[in-house]
Amino acid sequence: MAPSARCDCVSPVARRGWISTLRPLVVGVTYEESKSLLSGSGTEDVKEMIAAPELQTDFHFPQETDTHISSDTDFEDPDGKNANPGKGKSTKKGKKGPGEKGKGGAKGGGTGRLNGHHQENGMENMMLFEVVKLGKSAMQSVVDDWIESYKHDRDTALLDLINFFIQCSGCKGVVSAEMFRHMQNSEIIRKMTEEFDEDSGDYPLTIAGPQWKKFKSSFCEFIAVLVRQCQYSIIYDEYMMDTVISLLTGLSDSQVRAFRHTSTLAAMKLMTALVNVALNLSINMDNTQRQYEAERNKMIGKRANDRLELLLQKRKELQENQDEIENMMNAIFKGVFVHRYRDAIAEIRAICIEEIGVWMKMYSDAFLNDSYLKYVGWTMHDKQGEVRLKCLTALQGLYHNRDLNTKLELFTSRFKDRIVSMTLDKEYDVAVQAIKLLTLVLQSSEEVLTAEDCESVYHLVYSAHRPVAVAAGEFLFKKLFSHRDAEEDSAPKRRGRQSPNANLIKTTVFFFLESELHEHAAYLVDSMWECASELLKDWECMISLLLDEPLPGEEALSDRQETALIEIMLCTIRQASECHPPVGRGTGKRVLTAKEKKTQLDDRTRMTELFAVALPPLLAKYSVDAEKVTNLLQLPQFFDLEIYTTGRLEKASHLEALLRQIGEIVAKHTDTEVLEMCSKTYHALCNEEFTIFNRVNIARSQLLDEQVDKFNRLLEDFLQEGDELDEDDAYQVLSTLKRITAFHNAHDLSKWDLFTSTFKLLNTGIENGDMPEQIVIHALQCTHYVILWNLAKISDGSSKKEDLLTLKRQMRAFSLMCQRYLTNVNTAVKEQAFTILCDMLLIFSHQIVSGGRETLEPLVYSPEPSLQSELLSFILDHVFIDQDDDGNSTADGQQDDEAGKIEALHKRRNLLAAYCKLIIYNVVEMKTGADIFKQYMRYYNDYGDIIKETMSKTRQIDKIQCAKTLILSLQQLFNEMLSDLGYNFDRSSSAFCGIKELARRFSLTFGLDQLKTREAIAMLHKDGIEFAFKEPSPQGEGHPPLNLAFLDILSEFSSKLMRQDKRTVHMYLERFMTFQMALQREDCWLPLISYRNSLQAGGDDDTMSVISGISSRGSTVRSKKAKPATGKRKLAEESSSSSSDGVWMNREQAIQTPVMMPSPHLTSTVMRDPKRLRPEESYMGVYGMPPEQQQQPSQPQHGHPQTPQHHPQTPIDYNTQVTWMLAQRQQEEVRQQQERAAMNYAKLRSNLQHAIRRSTGLMEDDEEPIVEDVMMSSEGRIEDLNEGMDFDTMDIDLPPSKNRRERSELKPDFFDPASIMDESVLGVSMF
What we know:
Blueprint: E1 5-7, H1 12-17, H2 31-39, E2 59-61, E3 113-114, E4 117-118, H3 128-134, H4 139-152, H5 154-168, H6 177-182, H7 185-194, H8 215-230, H9 240-252, H10 257-296, H11 305-340, H12 346-362, H13 364-367, H14 370-379, H15 385-399, H16 409-421, H17 428-444, H18 451-458, H19 466-481, H20 486-490, H21 501-515, H22 521-536, H23 539-547, H24 559-578, H25 594-621, H26 626-632, H27 647-651, H28 654-668, H29 672-685, H30 693-720, H31 727-746, H32 754-768, H33 773-795, H34 801-821, H35 827-843, H36 865-878, H37 894-920, H38 930-933, H39 940-957, H40 959-981, H41 990-1004, H42 1014-1028, H43 1046-1050, H44 1059-1071, H45 1075-1079, H46 1086-1096, H47 1127-1135, H48 1139-1146, H49 1175-1178, H50 1187-1191, H51 1214-1231, H52 1233-1238, H53 1241-1253, H54 1266-1271, H55 1278-1283, E5 1285-1286, E6 1291-1292, H56 1313-1316, H57 1319-1323
């Protein structure tokens, strides 16, 4: 028997029979293992897919088999009896002996190659990876060069191909010829994994940049062209494809993402190319079969037996080739797809689903069945939107072909509900494709989707996301509007009411009304614009439906339907004229193409020609209907006014008819919305660029002359009536004032001098107090317009100085008038006065002179404190109220009540926004915002966004002032709580917890960048500490200050302090503490204890004093070099180290520090054993030394001079204390210099970092944080600590705890007395 040959993949024998034909003669692999591997099972459960030697896809088969296995065999035929010349070389690559040579075997490792690659010149001799990476060569020529190389030396060429896949994965390793001959695939993959560059997670398929932009497409193209060029011979040689499939299958099971991703993509593209080959074989087999049948059915005399034999032989070869291709595809599907379609990486899953969709579409006879469709159905539930999107696009390709509908029936019934639910997918791209897929399903079979399924898509036409809405609009159009009778299509084109679009327009109106979203007609039109623009732009039909009488037997439109049709018509005209989506859809106006611009101009011209004629009759017909008239009056805003000056439109006097109708509408209506629309229409028509301006201007002037004269006449009579106001006269004054105010909004009426009349009217209302509220409201608004128009004229620079003084006088008088109306009994009047007053203060603030308008400086108006107080009181009384207290709810039903509440809330939000703008633009003092900010939690649902934005803007203006405002708001809430609950309140009460939660929310608004908010946070703590100690207890110093509980609230901001600032704030806190306060442990002192703990947490110190509470982590132990203990240098360095340490603390030099109690006797710390030294003994805080201690200074060591003694009766100031402690520190440092130098710094640093991470701070192996006992962050340990404290000698020992070493085990350097007193703390100046 010849030596065994090696095969790198599942052989054709295994492909054909898969299991039964395999013998248990495979070298190194048992029968059960080979069965498990071939079936593809168990691969996903492998933990070490690379390193496990038993997981190999390389099988060794014996060379001799039965001769009847034909050319599909995977075994060597040494005698060449079974050789098939049509299938290329059948020689198998095996483990060759030293003297054995295959074709080109001598060149495999010869001098002509380096690592298996050519060294000759020319593009074809470059590495395949480099050629594909460049993407500049024609891929077919690259593949042809490789095929020629393969024919010359297939081992060498195949080695190039293997290295190509390895390099495409981003691996730096190279498979050598020696490795290729003697190593299994699993061993090669393991070797390549070891050489993989793990420093970067990028590989060619994921690297960004122009160089790699086309790599994926070139890579996929190479595989497709390779199979296409080899499809007639090489892929059947039982060598090349076996090796490639085996390699890709092994790589796809790798734990290295780059290998798995690249090999999966290659395998799927290889499978796609094989599917194409199988499809061609199937077509050729069908053609051969037909030819064979046709030849065999001929008469015997005419039958060509040679041709029959040739056809029969051809069919047999095609069948054999197809069997081999199918076995290859089966190997890839079971070896790669079945495992990778559920890979952990979404990109790999998406590749699998995308390619299986291609297979089912390309070769539906073989793949379009439930065995393959189930994978797509299952994956529609994938967590990643990218994968779900690939599922939908794959299905779209199938449903697009109606011939495949019968094969999709079972799948549709099973997964239809899932597809419908995906229309609401959180990923908008997925939702769009789901709707498009349902549209294809609808076209293929209308019975599949139920009415509920369709309704779930219908409402998406109102979606704010435009692609979703457009897809839903197309679905709606296909469902409701795409069906026309054959008679309508064959009938001649009719126009107007009789056109085919008439019924479709009615259907659109019916759908709009049934959807009950009457304010969203613009969204409906925009959704259907792309698919039904011809229908929506049939304005002639719409006009006919509105003006013409219905045909016999035709049902006329109802009033509600006519209103809806006019609204839809207006939206279509706006869409055609502006060519951009409505507000809320899209990011902005896009640049129109030349074709779109031409369409826009054509539509605008046609629309103007139609409605210039039809609008006057429409206005005449619906002149009494305010809603219809309001919509119709908007049409001239989109007209091309040049049309009025050309052709028959001018002769027919359609413009005069339009102006006449507008004048009649003004005379008939008093509705503000209608009057303002008339004003806007006149403004649109009064364009000086067109010749129609003179006619429109004359009509406008006549209209306003009549109204102003009428108003002045009525006002004179109205004011003379005095207390006896006639209702008819009041109505006439109000209606005329409404018309004037509406026109004054868009037109300059300065020449009529309305300020005198309206101000006189307002003054009379103040004096009498019985003026109707609507008259006052419109008079205020009209006067406001007068002042704004005068300001606009002055800003142009064309006015005189007298006009500026007149405007200043009018503005001040009107502001005082509005301030007086803030106390009116009518709420609507007060709201109008407040809104106008806020606008006036903002307009005439200091910013009016910006932009080179220094001439307007006399107009600057700053509100007085009384006015600021009134504005704030109005906000608190009218905005921060409950819904039930508003009084605007109606009793006409729950729906009207809810609508009234929403409207009232909207009005209150506008009032709050108007006042917040005054804060943001520094018109009123920022501290007034405290009353606003304190409502943040209580009214979060109603005004949370406004208050939060105000806080953000104020912080941008002045961080420190904003912080002071925030703490002021908390102080106000705290005082209110004390007034309600008293000073002995429960700190677990809801009121106190609510203030703490508000403080936590405020803290979150400062963000994560502590440097930016450093000074602001420090100032916030400063103000909070001062407030907490502001009110001493009337019962004496033994009791806590009245506001001490505020420190519990202030602790919410401690996490925002930088580490060094915590020490500074802690020192500032001790300025307000007496010695007795530090010793207190009762519950009433817990806020102080918890606040001190919050300042000590996360500091630099290793221990801390229970008495002083100073958080001063020692830097001596941590530093490689001991810092020099010169007091002057320390003080200078620390004073400039941080802005908050020196700047904000020095701002309050004059603050009165509470008198501190004298300290008890302190024992000398010089002669103490360092293991027993207490933290308290090395630092005295800011407390003065008693006379006893002053008379007994510590003895010097190592020859250092003694500490200077002071007079017993003279109090020691802080600087003297610091000098004394510095001397003590010098002595201690000298004594412990040698011990610290002997420590292993690296080990100490690692242990210390580990201890810090576990928040222990002292010991390297503690299971519990020792700091917790010292800091007293647990209430349960307070009594134990008090019992262990000897206040006479200040001897404090740490109590024993579980899992903790005894104190004697502490290393001296971890409990260094010198490290307790940090240099930075010593150097900080005290106020």
